[in-house]
Design goal:
This protein is an alpha+beta fold. The protein is built from five helices and eleven strands, in the order αβββββββααααββββ. α2 packs antiparallel against α5, α3 runs parallel beside α5 and α4 packs antiparallel against α5.
Length: 199
């Protein structure tokens, strides 16, 4: 009997090594979290879109002894309908687009939804995330500049996460101005694949 179980155990080892996706709800959002080599990545889909983008709330916590270089373009959305994967756009692209095209009210709606999700989630405690960027943005004046500043505070930015550091932000996917539909999120960070479940 032990001999017959050995192949089954060997077949399941790669699945266990990939890490287990944890799912939970907070403030009406469905989160998925996955840890690989000490870096925990968590995300939830935001229920609204802004301009041409579908939006994902992302938070990361570095529990490893290493520095992790992270950026929004590490994230890809794989639609379930067979369309090609959609890579998230860099923060400078989002900020420039919102500065040129988005009204302040659009950004404020997304900001309010993001804050509700963030501040109501006991699992997200960023040392260098949205709240720190928001406080910096409050110092700016002009209306167009304020919309861009609010967008830049929301946007997940390229960063180097030191051991013990954490960050959060919104990741934007060019998705015809609609919330992300059925599919899965995959992130490739420093050579590590974070593959989440289909939603």
């Amino acid at each position: 009997m032990a001999f017959r179980l050995a192949p089954i155990i060997l077949l399941t080892l790669p699945l266990a090594a990939r890490g287990q996706v944890l799912e939970f709800s907070s403030n009406g959002l469905q989160y998925q979290a996955l840890t690989r080599q000490g870096l925990t990545v968590m995300h939830a889909r935001m229920p609204q879109a802004i301009r041409d983008f579908g939006v994902l709330q992302v938070a990361m916590n570095n529990g490893s002894p290493h520095i992790w270089k992270v950026k929004p373009t590490d994230f890809v959305f794989q639609p379930a309908d067979g369309r090609p994967p959609i890579r998230a756009v860099a923060e400078r692209v989002v900020i420039a687009d919102l500065f040129r095209n988005a009204g302040r009210s659009e950004v404020v709606k997304l900001q309010a939804a993001y804050e509700q999700a963030l501040f109501g989630n006991q699992h997200i405690r960023s040392s260098n995330g949205y709240e720190q960027r928001r406080l910096s943005a409050l110092a700016l004046g002009d209306r167009g500049v304020k919309a861009a500043a609010a967008a830049s505070a929301l946007t997940f930015v390229e960063d180097e996460l030191s051991p013990g550091a954490s960050t959060d932000g919104a990741v934007f996917f060019p998705f015809r101005g609609q919330p992300l539909g059925p599919g899965r999120v995959v992130a490739l960070i420093n050579g590590q694949v974070f593959e989440f479940r289909d939603e």
